[in-house]
């Protein structure tokens, strides 16, 4: 049984002329959980700020540095995910080849999935949709769900079932666009 999470998710707008950020912001808070993050297409790059990464990202040391973005120390290309965080994960997304590689009418889309585990059990998941063009990007919440304890025990949710569930959520969202 999955239920909606009312809080704990951030989805932000990005505009090249109005922001010092490199891309669309997104994040989740799952207190006491290990959080696995993956982008689902080969179109995007995830950026992690030093202040967030060193504190929460357990994969911080294996990620490549990104010196050309002043406020970001690390990045993860599609092949470098999933990433693991503790308690919270906040990232920014931009197209693989950065904004300058897009023409003014070209849009790029991606889905970023966050999976939370506590005491070895899957506790919840979040799926964010991000799309952007040469000038702006927006991330939005597609699903923000948790698996509450039943009679004091965690539910038995398999990774295989969860991966299929996330793919179904993404497919249904694509069809609704």
Structural features, described:
By secondary structure, this protein is mostly beta strands. It has helices spanning 50-56, 159-176; strands at 3-4, 9-11, 13-15, 24-39, 44-48, 64-65, 74-76, 83-95, 108-118, 121-132, 136-146. Strands 1, 2, 3, 4, 5, 6, 7, 8, 9, 10 and 11 form an eleven-stranded antiparallel sheet that branches. The longest helix has 18 residues, at 159-176. The radius of gyration is 16 Å and the shape is globular.
Characteristics of this structure?
177 residues; mainly beta; eleven-stranded antiparallel beta sheet; 2 helices; 11 strands
Quick structural gist:
With 177 residues, the chain is mainly β. The protein has helices at 50-56, 159-176, and strands at residues 3-4, 9-11, 13-15, 24-39, 44-48, 64-65, 74-76, 83-95, 108-118, 121-132, 136-146.
Beta percentage is over 45%
The tally of strands reads 11
The poorly predicted ranges are: none
Shape: globular
Average pLDDT for all residues = 83
Q: What string gives the helices and strands in order?
A: EEEEEHEEEEEEH
Overall helicity = 10-25%
Oligomer: single chain
Q: Helical element count?
A: 2
Distance between the termini: 27 Å
Alpha carbon gyration radius: 16 Å
Structural class: mainly beta
Q: Tell me about the biggest sheet?
A: 11 strands, antiparallel
List the helices and strands and how they pair.
Elements: E1 3-4, E2 9-11, E3 13-15, E4 24-39, E5 44-48, H1 50-56, E6 64-65, E7 74-76, E8 83-95, E9 108-118, E10 121-132, E11 136-146, H2 159-176
Antiparallel strand pairs: 1-11, 2-4, 3-11, 4-8, 4-9, 5-7, 5-8, 6-7, 9-10, 10-11
